C-alpha cells in the first residue's frame, strides 16, 4: 500500500487534463437523476480495491439497497489507466454514477461542467455522513468550500521521520521549531551525517518541503487561494519566504550532495535513511510501510516520527498537516439512482468498512476508527497518524493534486529548478504567478 494517491500523479499527471467544454453535453446511464436502477461505481484498481469489491457485495445484499431500489455495479480500472479511462468515460454516455478520485484539482473540471452533485447539504442533513468522518478530511476534498466527495480509503499525511538511534548517539531531540531544526542540521553535518534524505530525481518529494513551509509561515489560507485557481496567491510573501528558506537549506547542505540524482521511486532515499547516511526523511506516511517491507529491522527499532516544526514568527499552527487527506467517492450529477448512490456512500462510515481498511494497513478517517486501531498491523504508528489528522486545524491537499491540472507540470518544473539552483526564489515566485 505504498501510495496509490502519489503513484497516480507520477504515472498519469499529464492524462488528467480534461476539457470542461467536452463534458457538458454528455449524459450518464439513464440520466434520470432519480430512483431505481443499478448504480455504476468506478474505482482505481489496485490491491486495495478488494475492500471496495467486498463493500459492493455487502451493500447489494443489504436492507439499504432494497429500500433505495437499486444495487451497485463496480468497475475496476487498472491503476495506471485510471485517470485517462475516467476522463474518457466522463465525456461519454456511459459515465460512472459514482467514481473514485483525489479531490481538489482532480475533479475541478467535472465540477465546473456541472457534472458533480454538490453533497454539502446532503452531508449536513445526514447524521451518518455529517458525523461519520473527520471534518478536516471532508473539508480537504472540497472545492471553494463546497463538498463533492466522501472519504473512502486511508489517510496519508506527510510526516517528519527520524532515526532514533542516530539522534541518541548525537544527543539530539526532534525539532519543534525552525531554529531547533537548523541547530540539529548543523550538528549532524559536523558529525558527517546528511541531515535529510531527499529523492530529488522524482521532484514531488521536494514539493513536500514547500507545502509545509508555506503553511507554517503563512497559514493554510495562502494555498487555499491558489487551490481555488487564483494564481496571484503565489505572490503571497509566505511563498517567497518558503522558497528562500529552501534555498538556505540547500546552501547549508541539509540534503547533502547529489540529492537531485537520488530517486524515491527506486527506494534510493529510503535506503539512505535506513542505512544511517541521512538522519531524517520528510515523506508521506506510506514511508513506514515501505521501510517495513525493505528494511524491517530498521523500521521496527530505529524509526521515530514527529510533526513538521513551527516556523519562528510564522502564523501556521504546528498541528496543521499537508499530504493526501484521503481518496473520495464523488457522484455524477446525472446519476441513475441517487438514493442508492447516497446509501452506498453512507456505508463508508460503517464499522465493517472501517475494520476492512484497518486490516489492510490503512488508517481510515471515520470517527469510529480511533477505538479500532489496536487491530492495525502497526498500531503505534497508525494511532499517531490518526491523532495527527484528527487534531489538525487544517489538512492541505498535496499541491500537485489540489491545483488545476494545467498547473501541475509547470509547477513541478519550477520547484525542481529552485531545488537544483536553476532559478532564484524571486524567479520561482514570478514564474508561478504567471501560470494561466
From TrEMBL:
Signal peptide location: none
InterPro entries: Bact_solute-bd_prot1, SBP
Record PANTHER family: ARABINOSE-BINDING PROTEIN-RELATED, BLR3389 PROTEIN
Name of the molecule in the record: Sugar-binding protein
Organism: Streptomyces naganishii JCM 4654
SUPFAM superfamilies the record matches: Periplasmic binding protein-like II
Amino acid at each position: 500500500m505504498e501510495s496509490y494517491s502519489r503513484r497516480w500523479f507520477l504515472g498519469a499527471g499529464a492524462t488528467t487534463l480534461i476539457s470542461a467544454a467536452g463534458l457538458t453535453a454528455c449524459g450518464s446511464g439513464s440520466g434520470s437523476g432519480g430512483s431505481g436502477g443499478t448504480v455504476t461505481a468506478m474505482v482505481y484498481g489496485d490491491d486495495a480495491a478488494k475492500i471496495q469489491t467486498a463493500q459492493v457485495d455487502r451493500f447489494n445484499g443489504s436492507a439499504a439497497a432494497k429500500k433505495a431500489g437499486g444495487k451497485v455495479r463496480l468497475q475496476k480500472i487498472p491503476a495506471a489507466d485510471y485517470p485517462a479511462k475516467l476522463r474518457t468515460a466522463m465525456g461519454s454516455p456511459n459515465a460512472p454514477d459514482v467514481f473514485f478520485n483525489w479531490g481538489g484539482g482532480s475533479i475541478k473540471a467535472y465540477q465546473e461542467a456541472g457534472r458533480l452533485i454538490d453533497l454539502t447539504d446532503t452531508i449536513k442533513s445526514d447524521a451518518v455522513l455529517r458525523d461519520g468522518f473527520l471534518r478536516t478530511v471532508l473539508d480537504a476534498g472540497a472545492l471553494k468550500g463546497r463538498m463533492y466527495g466522501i472519504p473512502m480509503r486511508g489517510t496519508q499525511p506527510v510526516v517528519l521521520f527520524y532515526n532514533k538511534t542516530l539522534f541518541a548517539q548525537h544527543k539530539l531531540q526532534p525539532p519543534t521549531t525552525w531554529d531547533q531544526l537548523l541547530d540539529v542540521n548543523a550538528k549532524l553535518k559536523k558529525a558527517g551525517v546528511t541531515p535529510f534524505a531527499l529523492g530529488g530525481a522524482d521532484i514531488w518529494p521536494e514539493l513536500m518541503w514547500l507545502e509545509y513551509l508555506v503553511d507554517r509561515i503563512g497559514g493554510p489560507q495562502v494555498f487555499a487561494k491558489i487551490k481555488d485557481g487564483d494564481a496571484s496567491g503565489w505572490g503571497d510573501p509566505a511563498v517567497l519566504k518558503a522558497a528562500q528558506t529552501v534555498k538556505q537549506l540547500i546552501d547549508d547542505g541539509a540534503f547533502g550532495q547529489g540529492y537531485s540524482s537520488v530517486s524515491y521511486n527506486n527506494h534510493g532515499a529510503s535506503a539512505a535513511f535506513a542505512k544511517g547516511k541521512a538522519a531524517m526523511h520528510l515523506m508521506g506516511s506510506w514511508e513506514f510501510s515501505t521501510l517495513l517491507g525493505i528494511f524491517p529491522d530498521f523500521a521496527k527499532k530505529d524509526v521515530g516520527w514527529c510533526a513538521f516544526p513551527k516556523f519562528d514568527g510564522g502564523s501556521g499552527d504546528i498541528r496543521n498537516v499537508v499530504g493526501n487527506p484521503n481518496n473520495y467517492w464523488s457522484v455524477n450529477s446525472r446519476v441513475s439512482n441517487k438514493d442508492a448512490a447516497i446509501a452506498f456512500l453512507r456505508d463508508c462510515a460503517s464499522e465493517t468498512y472501517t475494520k476492512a481498511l484497518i486490516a489492510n494497513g490503512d488508517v481510515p478517517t471515520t470517527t469510529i476508527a480511533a477505538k479500532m486501531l489496536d487491530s492495525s498491523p502497526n498500531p503505534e504508528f497508525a494511532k499517531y497518524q490518526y491523532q495527527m489528522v484528527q487534531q489538525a486545524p487544517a489538512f492541505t491537499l498535496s499541491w500537485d493534486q489540489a491545483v488545476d491540472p494545467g498547473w501541475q507540470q509547470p509547477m513541478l518544473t519550477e520547484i525542481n529548478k529552485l531545488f537544483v539552483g536553476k532559478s532564484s526564489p524571486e524567479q520561482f515566485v514570478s514564474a508561478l504567478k504567471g501560470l494561466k
